[in-house]
Structure to design on (1077 residues):
């Protein structure tokens, strides 16, 4: 029964999206909050991430977009007086906050109960030492190992475990600080890194289970001891690769029933031993394939990355049920949403196979080791459903959007990966393709299994795919139609893509048909759509959650309502993140409200858009032209929205239009024009709008001529890319060739724009709405970093704090001219540069941009929601949107960067985007807002201590101002010789430190020794970049705030001054806009 003694519940979110803690927690948090509100509880949500649906003011009763620190939570608890706190849907962040607030007595002081997970259970699962003891006490097998607080203790432990040994940081997320150690020489650095990454300064060492098979069970338990296995998950990759970086399959394929029951019983015993009574957990097992020995690797007493996967794979809403059992329900009291007949205590059973493949971003980080190991490196993932393992595997490969549509790594414009038996033993992002190449080369499956530790069963399935591929490659044109039909139907049932079959078949098959799609349809080989129903079709599914197959029966049963198809963004990656998913969800909400049937189409299991109750119907399919057209053929929508999912659906727009599909909103032609750098430069000339001096090149020779004419430094920008892919700042002819080459590779055959780089210019982003008749500015945001830093990585402030009303007026005028000239209907984003009193246009994107969620929360104008209404035919006048909203106070968005997770990457910001997520800080004073944004991004500014200043010659005078301000606030100053000389001449006391390029490690030692609390390092010229590398690496490793631009340094000064003057205040969006409006 539901508890009636609690009324207000505090829910912490998981904060910014980082590697290891991504969009899956927006999805689980949103689901939990909605469930609690529906039960009549008042929900207070705290989350620093503005790009999420959960931080929309409509979701919770009080929404605080504030830093997730014990200090801010204490202040919010004092204000809101919650009765309970639910920490299990906010990832590791939520659990760590629950621990901190209970240990410092805040929960007790304000009478807040923990629900969803008891403190003892969190400790027993999170503290590896305690977990180990709990397991051993209950006779549950675990790998041998233990905790170490020093190198000496670690050396003692290694005597028991032997090498190789796994070293990891306790209480860290996504395997931060973890590594495999093969000999004594590597031990010291591994232990040091783990101790510094662990919030409790504890390293954990464990015997090697490398090469064992890895399984996970996603389970739930309630207080009446009802126990449900929601889903079993098997990793294709063996132990040794972080599960977030492994290809995983559900349900587990290679377990016998008896083995499955052993794991099931162990999972039940683990939950009982740890004391999880209320909610979802995830238990990971290692199984030695030689002996069958089973060990429990770890368990998470919370909703995890795997829970999002398990929820989407089964249709069983884990986060929602976790929230309900946390407030007292038992599983046998809750009805299954999908069947509306069975109870939640009924275990899901699947009549299909689900495959998840991670998506990496190594191309953004030259210098990073691409070998996969115990620390997670992927930035997103895709999931695909099929009737068989081969079908779901091939559909997952097609979902990745890396230009590949088949297992050998080939695609329409890509050759297969090289065959190399030596490399197979090393886990890398493309190992799956290399394994298949080995099968193609005829290497024995046993041999491949020995090298990769892939289970033979999976290899045998891949061999089936290879047999079908060979049959098609050798097919003769004269074969009978019945034979051809059976061969092609089998290929489609195995998941082969149309485009790939088109490449395999002899061209003479296409004499009567323009494409393979037409040939396939003429033979009557048409996909069917099956429903995800949680119970292997025993009961009727009421919610249309569909995937394609080539079966006899079709279960889609489309309605005859007016419907609109929304194309999602596919896998999260750098440059195309959760912000676009947010826009897709807003479109579904707005169009449903207008009476349309909404159809969501996506392949990303981490997101709110693929929740079964976001849109009226959900298709979980690869975002490729073939699969989208199949759904359009079946559903016949009145229009498709492609402008909200980032670059992914835009790339399909031309193909959809060619197939006669109606695209709603801004026409694909206008989008194409703005993406084509050459055409766009012409348009600006016609409208007489200033732009940086530029030229177009399609080859290195042309590029040299243009750069010569304009003068270095120049910016190189390819067309049709997102997230600044291959954009680069080039300072001399010597460096031009490499950058032009990568720009040509990023967008083959497309024009490359070469711009004069505007040094010291301010960049400004404008988001606006247009309906074809009028253009209304939604928000004007100024970048804090100077020009040259990608807008996705720059800190942004709204309202712009250094742009006059006069210049804002000019920007408004240009935005209007461009919106009308391009015929924009819906959202548009314009990027301006302001230098020497001249406003220039850098680029225009007539689609949703990544600043839309942040701008919407700061202005209280839901831009994506209004844009969707405009696209469905409303005018801005009808919607009452006629003028730019006024902004009360300052809202600052800060980027969160993944350098810590990717050792070896350069920490300098540039024109190519590298951040994985963002946070927001807001306050009535600029300094306070900036301070909050830094704290939320995980780098708290110090209020005292020492600062290291090392600036290039161009920045010396502004650097001096920073040094003087820091000195006035009582900071001790360290500086490198040149900078120190200038400080001394100005009469500032400063301690000189040697430059790293002179072979000195003095600076790094000071940072590592905790002697320096803040670093300002502005590099210039090719050498400075390498010189500063060691300093920046040390600062990132030790979590010391690192400023690499002067504008950020000045913002930091005003933030530190504000913090010292008065305390931070915290306000919910609801009270902020209630008072303001």
């Amino acid at each position: 029964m539901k508890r009636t003694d609690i009324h207000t519940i505090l829910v912490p979110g998981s904060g910014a999206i980082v590697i290891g803690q991504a969009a899956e927690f927006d999805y689980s948090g949103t689901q939990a909050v909605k469930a609690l509100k529906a039960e009549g509880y008042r929900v207070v949500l705290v989350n620093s991430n503005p790009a999420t649906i959960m931080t929309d003011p409509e979701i919770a009763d009080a929404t605080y977009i504030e830093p997730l620190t014990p200090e801010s939570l204490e202040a919010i608890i004092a204000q809101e007086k919650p009765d309970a706190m639910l920490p299990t849907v906010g990832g590791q962040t939520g659990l760590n906050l629950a621990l901190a607030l209970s240990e410092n007595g805040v929960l007790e002081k304000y009478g807040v109960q923990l629900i969803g997970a008891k403190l003892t259970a969190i400790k027993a699962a999170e503290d590896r030492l305690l977990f180990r003891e709990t397991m051993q006490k209950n006779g549950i097998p675990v790998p041998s190992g233990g905790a170490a607080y020093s190198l000496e203790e670690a050396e003692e432990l290694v005597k028991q475990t032997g090498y190789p040994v796994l070293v990891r940081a306790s209480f860290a997320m996504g395997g931060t600080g973890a590594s495999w150690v093969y000999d004594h020489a590597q031990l010291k650095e591994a232990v040091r890194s783990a101790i510094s990454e662990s919030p409790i300064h504890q390293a954990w060492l464990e015997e090697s289970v490398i090469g064992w098979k890895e399984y996970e069970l996603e389970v739930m338990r309630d207080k009446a001891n009802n126990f449900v296995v929601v889903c079993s998950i098997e990793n294709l990759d063996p132990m040794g690769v972080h599960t977030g970086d492994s290809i995983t399959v559900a349900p587990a394929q290679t377990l016998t029933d008896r083995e499955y029951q052993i794991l099931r019983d162990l999972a039940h015993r683990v939950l009982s031993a740890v004391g999880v009574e209320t909610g979802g957990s995830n238990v990971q097992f290692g199984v030695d394939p030689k002996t069958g020995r089973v060990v429990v690797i770890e368990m998470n007493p919370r909703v995890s990355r795997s829970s999002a996967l398990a929820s989407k794979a089964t249709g069983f809403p884990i986060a929602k049920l976790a929230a309900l059992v946390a407030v007292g329900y038992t599983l046998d009291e809750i009805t299954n949403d999908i069947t509306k007949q069975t109870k939640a205590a009924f275990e899901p059973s699947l009549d299909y196979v689900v495959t998840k493949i991670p998506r990496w971003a190594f191309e953004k980080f030259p210098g990073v080791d691409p070998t996969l190991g115990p620390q997670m490196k992927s930035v997103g993932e895709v999931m695909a459903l099929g009737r068989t393992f081969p079908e779901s595997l091939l559909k997952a490969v097609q979902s990745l959007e890396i230009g590949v549509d088949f297992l050998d790594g080939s695609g329409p414009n890509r050759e297969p990966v090289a065959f190399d038996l030596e490399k197979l033993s090393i886990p890398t992002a493309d190992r799956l393709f290399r394994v298949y190449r080995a099968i193609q080369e005829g290497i024995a499956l046993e041999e491949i299994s020995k090298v990769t530790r892939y289970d033979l069963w999976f290899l045998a399935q891949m061999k089936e795919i290879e047999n079908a591929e060979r049959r098609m490659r050798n097919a003769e044109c004269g074969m009978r139609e019945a034979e051809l039909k059976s061969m092609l139907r089998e290929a489609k049932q195995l998941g082969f893509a149309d485009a790939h079959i088109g490449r395999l078949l002899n061209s003479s098959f296409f004499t009567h048909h323009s494409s393979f799609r037409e040939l396939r349809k003429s033979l009557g080989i048409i996909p069917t759509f099956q429903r995800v129903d949680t119970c292997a079709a025993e009961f009727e599914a009421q919610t249309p959650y569909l995937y394609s197959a080539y079966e006899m029966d079709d279960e889609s049963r489309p309605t005859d309502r007016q419907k609109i198809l929304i194309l999602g963004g596919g896998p999260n990656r750098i440059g195309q993140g959760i912000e676009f998913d947010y826009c897709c969800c807003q479109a579904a909400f707005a169009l449903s409200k207008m009476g349309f049937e909404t159809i969501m189409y996506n392949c990303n299991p981490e997101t709110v858009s693929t929740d079964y109750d976001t849109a009226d119907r959900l298709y979980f399919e690869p975002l490729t032209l073939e699969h989208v057209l199949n759904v359009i053929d079946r559903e016949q929508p009145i229009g498709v929205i492609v402008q909200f999912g980032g670059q992914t659906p835009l790339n399909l727009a031309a193909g959809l239009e060619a197939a006669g599909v109606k695209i709603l909103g801004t026409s694909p032609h206008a989008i194409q024009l703005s993406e084509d750098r050459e055409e766009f430069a012409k348009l600006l000339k016609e409208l007489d709008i200033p732009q940086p001096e530029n030229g177009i090149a399609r080859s290195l020779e042309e590029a040299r001529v243009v750069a010569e004419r304009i003068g270095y430094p120049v910016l190189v920008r390819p067309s049709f890319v997102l997230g600044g892919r291959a954009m680069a700042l080039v300072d001399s002819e010597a460096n031009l060739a490499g950058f032009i080459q990568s720009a040509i590779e990023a967008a083959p055959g497309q024009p490359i724009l070469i711009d004069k780089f505007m040094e010291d210019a301010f960049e400004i982003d404008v988001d606006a709405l247009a309906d074809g008749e009028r253009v209304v500015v939604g928000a004007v945001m100024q970048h804090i970093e100077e020009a040259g830093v990608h807008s996705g990585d720059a800190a942004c402030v709204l309202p712009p704090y250094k742009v006059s009303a006069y210049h804002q007026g000019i920007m408004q005028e240009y935005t209007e001219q461009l919106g009308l000239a391009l015929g924009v209907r819906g959202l548009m984003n314009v990027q301006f540069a302001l230098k020497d009193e001249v406003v220039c246009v850098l680029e225009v994107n007539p689609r949703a941009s990544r600043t839309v969620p942040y701008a919407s929360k700061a202005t209280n104008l839901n831009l994506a929601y209004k844009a969707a209404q405009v696209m469905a035919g409303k005018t801005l006048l009808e919607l009452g949107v006629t003028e730019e909203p006024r902004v009360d106070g300052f809202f600052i968005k800060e980027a969160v960067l993944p350098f810590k997770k990717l050792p070896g990457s350069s920490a300098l910001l540039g024109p190519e985007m590298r951040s994985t997520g963002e946070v927001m800080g807001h306050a009535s004073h600029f300094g306070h807002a900036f301070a909050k944004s830094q704290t939320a991004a995980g780098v708290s500014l110090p209020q005292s201590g020492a600062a290291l200043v090392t600036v290039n010659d161009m920045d010396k005078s502004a650097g001096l101002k920073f040094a003087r301000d820091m000195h006035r606030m009582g900071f001790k100053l360290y500086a490198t010789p040149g900078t120190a000389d200038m400080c001394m001449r100005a009469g500032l006391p400063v301690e000189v430190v040697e430059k790293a390029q002179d072979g000195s490690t003095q600076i790094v030692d000071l940072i590592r020794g905790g002697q320096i609390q803040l670093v300002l390092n502005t590099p210039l010229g090719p050498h400075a970049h390498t010189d500063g590398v060691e300093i920046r690496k040390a600062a990132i490793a030790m979590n010391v705030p690192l400023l690499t631009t002067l504008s950020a340094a000045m913002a930091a000064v005003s933030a530190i001054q504000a913090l010292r003057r008065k305390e931070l205040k915290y306000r919910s969006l609801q009270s902020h806009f209630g008072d303001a409006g």
